[in-house]
């Protein structure tokens, strides 16, 4: 996909949002639909799944409920939920039992005036029907509608929306695959060669993910939340540009000091310059944010007290690096 030519192979990945790493994958012909390639079984019990629209189905929602698996997904456009009960929202007129959501909204029985809506709905008919929690939150271009089985006493509508926004981490990882590892630029012609190149490129992304995760663990354990995190795509580019130095270090059995120098160079090039101004949803959830500091052109004495120590340490690090 996105390479300008029809895809021949699909890569199905399972990503751990907590670690930011791929935990499983398999390949399939591109002509096959995505949904059959996700099997919801006992290994997910007690865990949570963020569904892409290509994988969500009534059967999968039922399987999650039966196995105690939490899920969050967007509502498919062709699904017609019927309202069982309304827990949150501005009701302007009486709502009949199992009223169609689209008709109820069209009749303005529920006011969409910027407030969140939280309801219990049923989707499907007869033996295929499933009950789910439906939340609506205002977005930049209208309301966003989600399905979930997260409890209301722990996750409000906006928290459910934030959970689904974590899917951006998956899109970011896919971008590392395509732009960083060039997964979509394979020129092999035989099946074995294609598999080898696919595995090599997925291994490149996995290496990037592991390094970013280890750096995040160090930031959390050492309480260095004011140090910028590693940017995955920037780290991927940095590794590619230094592949010759990395191979030479491996072949020559480099000393710990040489590996430390390579790691420092990678770290300097891969730190996210925009993390304080635009922290990700995951960083906000984990509390890994820092004050914005002062604009570059302002004097240090104009820096806010909450950010002054961070700016001082940044200056000290740069001076130490230049001295070495």
TrEMBL record:
Name of the featured protein: Protein containing Transposase, IS4-like domain
Entry GO MF terms: DNA binding; transposase activity
Region (Disordered): 293-324
Pfam families cross-referenced by the UniProt entry: DDE_Tnp_1 (PF01609)
A biological process term (GO) from this entry: DNA transposition
Organism: sediment metagenome
InterPro entries: RNaseH-like_sf (IPR012337), Transposase_11 (IPR002559)
Domain Transposase IS4-like, first and last residues per copy: 7-203
Biased composition (Basic and acidic residues): 310-324
């Amino acid at each position: 996909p996105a390479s300008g030519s029809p895809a021949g192979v699909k890569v199905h990945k399972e990503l751990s949002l907590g670690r930011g790493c791929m935990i499983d994958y398999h390949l399939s012909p591109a002509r096959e639909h995505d949904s059959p390639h996700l099997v919801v079984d006992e290994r997910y019990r007690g865990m949570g799944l963020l569904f892409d629209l290509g994988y969500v189905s009534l059967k999968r929602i039922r399987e999650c409920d039966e196995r105690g698996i939490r899920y969050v997904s967007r509502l498919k456009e062709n699904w017609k939920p019927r309202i069982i009960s309304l827990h949150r929202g501005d009701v302007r007129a009486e709502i009949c039992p199992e009223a169609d959501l689209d008709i109820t909204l069209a009749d303005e029985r529920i006011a969409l005036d910027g407030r969140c809506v939280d309801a219990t709905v049923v989707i499907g008919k007869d033996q295929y029907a499933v009950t789910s929690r439906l939340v609506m939150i205002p977005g930049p271009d209208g309301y966003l509608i989600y399905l979930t089985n997260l409890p209301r006493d722990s996750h409000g509508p906006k928290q459910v929306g934030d959970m689904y926004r974590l899917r951006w981490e998956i899109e970011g990882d896919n971008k590392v695959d395509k732009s960083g590892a060039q997964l979509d630029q394979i020129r092999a012609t035989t099946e074995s060669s294609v598999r080898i190149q696919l595995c090599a490129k997925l291994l490149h992304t996995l290496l990037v993910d592991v390094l970013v995760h280890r750096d995040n663990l160090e930031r959390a354990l050492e309480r260095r939340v004011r140090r910028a995190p590693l940017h995955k795509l920037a780290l991927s580019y940095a590794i590619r540009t230094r592949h010759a130095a990395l191979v030479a270090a491996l072949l020559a059995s480099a000393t710990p000091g040489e590996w430390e120098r390579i790691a420092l160079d990678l770290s300097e090039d891969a730190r996210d310059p925009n993390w304080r101004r635009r922290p990700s949803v995951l960083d906000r959830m984990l509390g890994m944010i820092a004050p914005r500091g002062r604009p570059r052109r302002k004097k240090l004495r104009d820096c806010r007290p909450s950010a002054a120590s961070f700016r001082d340490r940044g200056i000290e690090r740069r001076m130490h690096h230049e001295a070495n």
